[in-house]
Amino acid sequence: MIVVALVAIDMIVQVRIAGALNPNVTQANIAQTICRPGWTATVRPSTSYTDRLKRKQMLARGLPGPASAYEEDHFIPLELGGHPTSPLNLWPQPWARTDACNAHNKDIDEHAYRRAVCRGLMKLAVAQQRMSDKWKKCKAGNG
């Protein structure tokens, strides 16, 4: 019975954050990972991988327009410990500034949360949860 309770708790935690996390990024190692300049370049997937995934996801979601109208974005950003290659953490996000869910707006949030985490003003898990809470409506297409 205790095992079942622990599994249930773990499942709740997993469901709370939309996207997927990089298991190699923790609060304990942010100075060596997300807070180190240039670190995201060491884990960023190739454009051939993300372009292929973007086209597949656009087709599955019935998104209109050319692929160039979207960025295959990390839902939980790399700079907050998002998983680099998991399709659960990548989604075609519109570029158009007329869309409230556009990539430019999300970039502003990503940078602000990273600064707060790296300055010790916010825990990594809190920043990840806030990104998830704010942007999951957009990912679901309800932005």
List keywords for this structure.
143 residues; mainly alpha; disordered N terminus
**Approximate helicity band:** 40-55%
* Widest sheet: strand ordering: 1-2
Report the count of strand segments.
2
Secondary-structure-based class equals mainly alpha
Count, helices: 5
First-to-last CA distance:
40 Å
Biggest beta sheet summary: 2 strands, antiparallel
- Uncertain runs: 1-15
Q: How many distinct domains?
A: 1
List SSEs in N-to-C order: HHHEEHH
The outline comes out as globular
Mean pLDDT: 85
Radius of gyration from CA coordinates: 16 Å
Strand content: 5-15%
Write the layout of secondary structure elements.
Layout lengths: L1 H15 L22 H5 L3 H15 L8 E5 L15 E5 L8 H16 L5 H16 L4
Antiparallel strand pairs: 1-2
Helix pairs in contact: 4-5
Model description:
With 143 residues, this protein is mostly helical. It has one domain (2-139). The protein has five helices and two strands. α4 (103-118) runs antiparallel to α5 (124-139). The N and C termini lie far apart (40 Å). Mean pLDDT is 85; it is low at 1-15.
Describe what is shown at a glance:
The chain has 143 residues and is mostly helical. Helices cover 47% and strands 7% of the residues.
